[in-house]
Amino acid sequence: MKKITVLFSLLLLAAGASAQKMNVVEGDFKFLKDAKAINVVFRYDDMKLFNENKTEQQYIKERSEDLNAKNPGTGDTWVRKWEGAKESIWEPNFMDLIAKTVTAKKGTVFGLGKKDAPYTLTVDAVWIYPGWDAGVMKQPAKVTTLLTFTETGNPSKVLLKIKSENAPGNQWGSNFSNESRIGEGFEKTAKTLGTRIIKEAY
Known about the structure:
There is one protein chain. With 202 residues, this protein is α/β, with parallel strands linked by helices. It has a single domain (21-201), classed as Double Stranded RNA Binding Domain (2-Layer Sandwich), CATH 3.30.160. Helices cover 44% and strands 32% of the residues. The protein has helices spanning 2-17, 56-70, 74-106, 178-201, and strands at 21-27, 37-43, 48-49, 54-55, 109-112, 119-129, 132-133, 138-139, 141-151, 154-169. It is elongated, with a radius of gyration of 18 Å. It starts with a helix and ends with a helix.
């Protein structure tokens, strides 16, 4: 029992040390007050994973080979699941929460492919820790992103740049899907961003 208590204490300390941070790097929120629509773009070009800062290609190769070694075919299935998670889980989770926190309260519409919108929000995935779930014990995912608002017609014009670090992919009950936990991290990112927009733009 003592060992379990100590272990849980260490996990709590680790969680506290990596709590989500959202800091403005450049610009301010003022322009968002009168914005009616925001185009949203997601990018994963330079995304790194785990403390080793693995590239996505490296992670996919290692994990698929490991899964296939244990059970042939499961690694190939996982690759398709991972690659589809961006459009089926991560991005919808982000969009749903930004709609609930901003659109529902202020009417500003965030949408994919809204190239006629005056402003564009680019969500760059910088670093991801997928977390893990062993039933009794678990570790949430962590998602770090760079959130950049620019003029749609002039992408070099940065109006607001925010660094969101270690947004947690918390879990209720068991969740054995890395992709789902990461999706919750994107959800938390959008919720915190939306709260900041409401607080600082209006």
